[in-house]
Amino acid sequence: MNNDEGILFRRAVEKDAAALVALYDRAARWMQKHGIEQWKPGEKDVAHFAAKMREGEVWLAGDAEGRIIGAYELWWSDEEAWGVQPPVAGYVHRLMVERKTAPSGTGRRMLEHAERRIAGSGLPRARLDCVSTNPRLLAYYQGAGYRVVGEFPHKEGKDGRVYGVILLEKRLDRLSVV
Questions:
Q1: Burial class, 16, CB count within 10 angstroms (exposed 0-12 / middle 13-18 / buried 19+)
Q2: Collapsing DSSP states into helix, strand and coil, what is residue 69?
Q3: Does residue 5 come out as left (phi exceeding 0), alpha (psi in the -120 to 50 range) or beta?
Q4: Which of the 8 DSSP states describes residue 14?
Q5: What angle in degrees, to the nearest 10, is found between the helix axes of 46-55 and 17-33?
Q6: What are the strands of the beta sheet with 57-62, ordered from one edge?
Q7: Residue 158 pLDDT > 90, yes or no?
Q8: Which of 28-32, 47-51, 130-134 has the highest mean pLDDT?
Q9: What's the CA gap between 165 and 131, in Å, rounded?
Q10: Which of 21, 145, 20, 163 is nearest to 80 (CA)?
Q11: CA dist 112 to 116, 126, 141, 176, Å?
């Protein structure tokens, strides 16, 4: 377990999958309440998070009392959005914050944790995508040092809906690793 200024990071294990589903659903409901068309409650289930734990990494952020205050997925490829790429990046997905209990800045700290994990694996770039209809999220990632490197206008969701995503990347020079 890594301690990052009061936030404890640990890799999720299969028994955490139900808590991840609940966190995702709360984040999706918050988005809907604020007019953000992105995630939908019930869209990700225990099987999804268990698969991501097997295929990549899922990280939990916790507070001193042991409560989960956030989570993210770290993938080592993302052909669906980025196409076939050389192994130069880690891909951050599903950055989720528990809005009622997480201290301000938790999302940024989770993003920095992911960046250190990627740099520690020897890869020079962090990548993520942002739904093109969410300008606040795009601005958030740009404020964290990510730059737009492309757009994929026809990404298809598991439900068959097609939407656009903006592709963002950050160089990870000189990061201390975890």
A1: buried
A2: strand
A3: left
A4: G
A5: 110
A6: 2-4, 7-11, 57-62, 68-75, 89-97, 125-131, 162-171, 147-156
A7: no
A8: 47-51
A9: 4
A10: 163
A11: 6, 10, 11, 10
The phi and psi torsions of 137 (rounded to 5 degrees) equal -70, -40
| Amino acid letter, residue 144 | A
φ/ψ (deg, to 5) at 66 = 90, 5
**Residue (of 5, 68, 74, 17) closest to 44 by Cα position:** 17
On whether the CB atoms of residues 97 and 157 are closer than 8 A, the answer is no
Which token pair is 116? Answer: 């250190």
Where do we find the tokens 């990700």?
44
Amino acid at 52: K
| Predicted TM-score (pTM) of this structure | 0.89
